[in-house]
């Protein structure tokens, strides 16, 4: 679409949306949000870019094929689930590590749950983008 | 136990990731897909052994106790469906080596195929009705991808019809889930079994039951909701339509059997009588529709519809023997139907078309293929001593036992009409000479491709004959499985009784 207003606005909006999507992803750990909604937000940003600058430019900006992103995400999510086998837990049991923990302070907790959520985020981004960009190109 | 239940879902997903990475590498991806299916077969076999030993096995993913967490549960019906999924998957994966072109491979055929298998296994193993919905979605996305992959115009046309009607069904399903949750406050199927009995408004429960019936009815392609199936199944490559024909509608049948034995058995006179009428009409319309067709795969597609009627019949009669028949029929049908589609693929390879008028002469030039067609075709029609005979025999006997003479007569007449369609294919494809006077011989295909095409057909035909000649262990298995379906207490105990 040839609109100066849209393309100028997009330049700012895309960055904000991507940033907000990451915020949503991380916030989802304890509050409403998470990988799915974060992934959708990121997708909206990239689709906006595709509308204003063209699908080819959007694909270039992504650098990776959307389906590869989705598959990478699927791999991460599965890996997060399979991690439980090393700790003799049921499939998909969350595994936690607490580096820098001292006494009551939990330090910097990291978990396979977050890895799973990032996987979901990537699956949603990749899958939705491959559909939307595919449809945009048809026309 | 948890891993045993999760493996049939994990294995295809992991395979999907790796074959996707190898999608432009040709042979490596194909063989990895076959390897993945073999591992799936081993996993399904061990699950089968465990359920045979322990009855119903259940596990809570992530360690959250039921009814709050994600439950995976396998009774004998689930286990056998997973096993048969693995068998069909392996057969089709081998067939795909020769059938899928490099372009479709580079677009990710094998990855979508594995995701489809994961979705099917997930639907069979989940113990939670919302998760069943999620697995239906996984299946829908993967199958839509497979349908339109490499899309020519006919494929897009079939794909749109397929996805639209299936989306309608999915929305119905979701609505039903929401209403059911509103009524009972739980989505765990074992928990629902007890919870629905305490619902005050039993009339509303019947409404919800009918919504579920419609949603699964579209998936299973029963009368009058079947029309998307013959409109789409003949368009994609054979390695796609064979796995669709074998597995996808049967997931709908499985969901019907599961929900209408475990959850909605509060008013059998109402719900199961609807199912009975639907079963009879499905059988008749399917077989009549097939009689009007003149394209190999379209005839077979209409026969899927007609055969679905038999399985629903087993559920609708709701006697122990009828459920034995339904379980037996499910297993027999998946093998036979997938095989017939594979045979149609080989015939197309040799003669150049699926149109009956444009092909012929296979009996004279490729008698081996003729025999390989006759086995599943006669089994489908119910000839002794093949597997279809026992499946039909059990169902007709079950109807006679409760003096449902009309439905028994319908089942027999439909069997007769099935022979008519199979004879039509036989006469047109195999018996009459090829209109362009070529003699399509199997030796026209080079050795390795021929092996990849015929090995799965041969294996599935051998399975059909085995079930036909030694039905006793299979009937015994179906009896135990039907016993579990009629007495959900064991299932409920297994799900709600375990802590992790």
Write the layout of secondary structure elements.
The complex is a heterodimer of chains A (139) and B (500).
Chain A lengths: L3 H24 L7 H19 L1 H8 L3 H17 L13 E2 L12 E2 H27 L1
Antiparallel strand pairs in A: 1-2
Helix pairs in contact in A: 1-2, 2-3, 2-5, 4-5
Chain B lengths: L1 H20 L5 H28 L2 E5 L8 E5 L1 H24 L2 H5 L2 H17 L3 H20 L4 H32 L4 H7 L6 H19 L7 H5 L5 H25 L5 H24 L4 H22 L2 H32 L10 H4 L1 H15 L5 H15 L3 H27 L15 H23 L1 H16 L2 H9 L3
Antiparallel strand pairs in B: 1-2
Spell out the key features of this protein.
heterodimer, A: 139 residues, mainly alpha, two-stranded antiparallel sheet, 5 helices, 2 strands, B: 500 residues, two-stranded antiparallel ribbon, 21 helices
Mind explaining what this structure looks like?
- The complex is a heterodimer of chains A (139) and B (500).
- Chain A has one domain (4-138).
- Chain A is elongated and about 60 Å long.
- Chain A has helices at 4-27, 35-53, 55-62, 66-82, 112-138; strands at residues 96-97, 110-111.
- Chain A is mainly alpha-helical and 139 residues long.
- Chain B has a domain at 268-469.
- In chain B, strands 1-2 form a two-stranded antiparallel ribbon.
- In chain B, helix 7 (153-184) packs antiparallel against helix 9 (202-220) and helix 11 runs antiparallel to helix 14.
- Chains A and B meet through helix 4 of A and helix 1 and strand 1 of B.
């Amino acid at each position: 679409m040839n609109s100066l207003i849209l393309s100028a606005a997009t330049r700012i909006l895309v960055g904000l949306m991507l940033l907000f999507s990451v915020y949503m992803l991380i916030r989802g750990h304890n509050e409403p949000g998470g990988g799915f909604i974060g992934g959708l937000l990121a997708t909206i940003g990239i689709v906006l870019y595709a509308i204003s600058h063209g699908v080819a430019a959007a694909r270039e900006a992504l650098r990776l094929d959307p389906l590869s992103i989705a598959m990478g995400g699927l791999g991460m999510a599965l890996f997060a689930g399979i991690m439980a086998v090393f700790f003799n837990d049921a499939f998909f049991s969350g595994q936690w590590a607490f580096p820098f923990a001292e006494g009551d302070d939990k330090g910097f907790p990291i978990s396979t749950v977050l890895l799973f959520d990032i996987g979901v985020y990537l699956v949603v981004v990749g899958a939705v983008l491959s559909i939307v960009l595919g449809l945009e190109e048809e026309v | 136990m948890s891993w045993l239940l999760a493996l049939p879902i994990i294995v295809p997903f992991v395979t999907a990731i790796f074959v996707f990475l190898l999608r432009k590498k040709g042979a490596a991806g194909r063989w990895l897909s076959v390897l993945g299916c073999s591992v799936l077969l081993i996993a399904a076999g061990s699950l089968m052994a465990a359920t045979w030993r322990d009855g119903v096995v259940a596990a809570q993913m992530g360690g959250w106790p039921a009814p709050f967490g994600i439950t995976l549960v396998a009774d004998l019906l689930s286990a056998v469906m997973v096993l048969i999924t693995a068998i069909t998957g392996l057969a089709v994966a081998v067939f795909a080596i020769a059938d899928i072109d490099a372009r479709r491979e580079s677009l990710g055929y094998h990855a979508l195929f594995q995701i489809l298998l994961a979705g099917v296994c997930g639907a069979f193993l989940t113990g939670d009705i919302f998760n069943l919905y999620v697995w239906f979605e996984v299946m829908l996305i993967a199958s839509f991808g497979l349908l339109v992959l490499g899309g020519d115009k006919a494929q897009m046309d079939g794909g749109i019809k397929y996805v639209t009607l299936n989306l309608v069904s999915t929305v119905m399903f979701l609505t039903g889930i929401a209403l059911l949750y509103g009524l009972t406050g739980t989505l765990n199927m074992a928990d629902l079994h007890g919870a629905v009995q305490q619902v005050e408004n039993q009339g509303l429960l019947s409404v919800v039951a009918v919504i579920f019936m419609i949603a699964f009815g579209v998936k299973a392609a029963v009368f009058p909701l079947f029309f998307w199936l013959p409109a789409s199944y003949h368009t994609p490559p054979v390695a796609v339509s064979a796995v669709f024909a074998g597995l996808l509608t049967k997931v709908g049948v499985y969901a019907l059997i599961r929900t209408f034995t475990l959850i909605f058995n509060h008013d059998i006179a109402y719900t199961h009588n609807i199912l009975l009428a639907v079963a009879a009409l499905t059988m008749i319309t399917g077989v009549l529709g097939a009689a009007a067709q003149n394209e190999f795969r379209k005839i077979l597609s209409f026969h899927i519809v007609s055969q679905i009627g038999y399985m629903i019949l087993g559920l609708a009669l709701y006697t122990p023997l009828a459920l034995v028949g339904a379980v037996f029929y499910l297993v027999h049908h998946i093998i036979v139907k997938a095989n017939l589609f594979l045979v149609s693929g080989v015939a197309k390879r040799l003669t150049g078309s699926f149109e009956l008028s444009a092909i012929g002469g296979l009996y004279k030039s490729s008698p081996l293929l003729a025999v390989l067609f006759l086995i599943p075709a006669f089994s489908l029609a119910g000839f002794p001593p093949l597997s279809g005979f026992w499946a039909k025999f059990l169902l007709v006997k079950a109807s006679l036992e409760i003096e449902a003479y009309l439905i028994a007569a319908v089942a027999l007449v439909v069997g007769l009409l099935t022979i008519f369609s199979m004879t039509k294919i036989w006469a047109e494809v195999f018996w009459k000479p090829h209109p362009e006077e070529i003699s399509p011989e199997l030796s026209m295909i080079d050795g390795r491709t021929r092996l990849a095409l015929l090995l799965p057909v041969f294996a599935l035909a051998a399975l059909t004959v085995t079930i036909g000649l030694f039905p006793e262990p299979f009937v015994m298995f179906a009896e135990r499985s039907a016993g579990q379906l009629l007495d959900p207490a064991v299932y409920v105990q297994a799900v709600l009784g375990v802590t992790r």
